[in-house]
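2024-03-11 09:14:02 DEBUG pipeline.ingest accepted 1 chain
2024-03-11 09:14:02 DEBUG pipeline.ingest length=125
2024-03-11 09:14:03 DEBUG pipeline.predict start
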Amino acid sequence: MALELSGKVMLVLSEQTGTGKNGQWSKQDFVIETEEQFPRKVCFSAWGDKVLLVRALKPGSSVRISFNVESREFNGKWYTDLRVWKIESSEQASRSAIHEPETGVGLEPLLPGETEESGDNDLPF
């Protein structure tokens, strides 16, 4: 499942590295705040060579993030990652929007008269 989200970079966390069964790995998390009526903070993870993209981020800059949602089980608990595969500055995003048609990848559109809060939501919060 590929999604996109835009916002301002709030925080870039420290890079994490280690060794696993597949060799060396590196990961870096960062937080953006969406630019909606009710802004939300979202933490993303960049793995491997995508860490280089995160190093260039500066707090306060506007970005568009392309990511996949992935969950995994460990010791009976489930963990969900928002794994980044593309980061564009808002300037890059606006230029590509002029030259490339919208792919339709992203969040489901709302019906006329529907708000985010009024849609069907199975979550208890």
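2024-03-11 09:14:41 DEBUG pipeline.report Residues 97-109 have pLDDT under 50 and may be disordered.
2024-03-11 09:14:41 DEBUG pipeline.predict end
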